[in-house]
Amino acid sequence: MLTEQQIKISASLTAWTTRQAVANLASRNLIVAGARRGRYEITRLGRNMLVAKASECGSPKS
């Protein structure tokens, strides 16, 4: 589980862009607010999307 500050730092985003990204991901049900206030965790759907994107990027192009 990450805080907005941790997301901001690790992704090198501004505070405004971080808030927009978190809101966008939450609206798409890819992340949810965690049990602890101000923390976010990835949902099952979010994990599935990551796996799908990783396999697309890792597959050789013909």
Which features characterize this protein?
three-stranded antiparallel sheet, 62 residues, alpha+beta, single chain
Walk me through the structure.
The structure is a single chain. With 62 residues, the protein is of the alpha+beta class. The chain has one domain (2-56). The chain has 3 helices and 3 strands, in the order βααββα. It has helices at residues 4-11, 15-27, 44-58; strands at residues 2-3, 31-33, 39-42. The protein has a 3-stranded antiparallel beta sheet. Helix 1 (4-11) packs across helix 2. It is globular. It starts with a strand and ends with a helix.
What integer value in Å does the Rg equal? 13 Å
- Tell me, rounded to a whole number, the average pLDDT: 91
Q: What is the helix fraction of residues, given as a range?
A: 55-70%
- What is the number of helices? 3
Quickly count the domains: 1
Overall structural class, as computed from helix and strand content, comes to: alpha+beta
Report the sheet-strand fraction: 5-15%
| Low-pLDDT runs | none
Spatial order of strands in the largest sheet: 1-3-2
SSE order, one letter for each helix or strand? EHHEEH
Short description:
Helices cover about 60% and strands about 15% of the residues.
What's the topology here?
Layout: E1 2-3, H1 4-11, H2 15-27, E2 31-33, E3 39-42, H3 44-58
Antiparallel strand pairs: 1-3, 2-3
Helix pairs in contact: 1-2
